Amino acid sequence: MISVNDLKTGLTIEVDGNIYRVIEFQHVKPGKGAAFVRTKLKNLRNGSTAEKTFRGGEKVAKAQIDNKKMQYLYESGGSYVFMDMDTYEQLELPHEQIAEELNYLLENSECHIMMYGTETIGINLPNTVELEVKETEPGIKGDTSSGGSKPAVMETDLVVQVPFFINAGDRLIINTSDGSYVSRA
């Protein structure tokens, strides 16, 4: 058990039988009344987000999440197959559970699967990934990096807003938290 005063972004907690990751938190000390903590939580089982307010000093259970290094192999009838890098065991995850993360995964890429005991919670993505531009409008000579943006379709079918000088075939670094362009690779 940990105090809500010790909550930090990225921490996993168990509340009302559900497992949540803290996305945002704010300690509030009003002039009148007791202090409290406002949080924005992501349910790791179904991907929904919720806002929850805790009284100051309230205790919550910390959820022990283990990260298992696995390799994404292929898609098979709406499920996605991953292989444990050490034991070669295979694990299938349904599309609904990892739909958002699939925008950043390529076949044969390594990732970390989040496990809560024996239950598979989802995929823990790195902060950034390197993807190739599949299609975009061609750049025009004279366009600068600060002159605006255009849509580009990446090799995973993710659409990212990129500067005008980016062309099809370029490799880019993409932020996995919000799907934004970071830089050329």
UniProtKB/TrEMBL annotation:
- Cross-referenced InterPro entries, in alphabetical order? Elong-fact-P_C (IPR015365), NA-bd_OB-fold (IPR012340), Rib_uL2_dom2 (IPR014722), Transl_elong_fac_P/YeiP (IPR020599), Transl_elong_KOW-like (IPR013185), Transl_elong_P/YeiP_cen (IPR001059), Transl_elongation_fac_P (IPR011768), Translation_prot_SH3-like_sf (IPR008991)
Q: Where can this protein be found? A: Cytoplasm
Superkingdom of origin organism: Bacteria
User: Where does the Translation elongation factor P/YeiP central domain start and stop, copy by copy?
Assistant: 67-121
Principal localization? cytoplasm
This protein's GO cellular component annotations are: cytosol
| Domain Elongation factor P C-terminal residue range list | 129-184
Report any Pfam family annotated for this entry.
EFP_N
What pathway is this protein a component of?
A: Protein biosynthesis; polypeptide chain elongation
Please indicate if the UniProt record lists Transmembrane helix as a keyword: no
Q: Which GO terms describe its biological process?
A: peptide biosynthetic process
> Is ATP-binding given among the entry's keywords?
no
Q: Which UniProt keywords apply?
A: Cytoplasm, Elongation factor, Protein biosynthesis
Provide any one GO MF term from the record: translation elongation factor activity
As for family, the record states: Belongs to the elongation factor P family.
What's this chain's function? Involved in peptide bond synthesis. Stimulates efficient translation and peptide-bond synthesis on native or reconstituted 70S ribosomes in vitro. Probably functions indirectly by altering the affinity of the ribosome for aminoacyl-tRNA, thus increasing their reactivity as acceptors for peptidyl transferase.
Q: What is this protein called?
A: Elongation factor P
Q: Which organism is it from?
A: Vagococcus bubulae
Q: Gene name?
A: efp
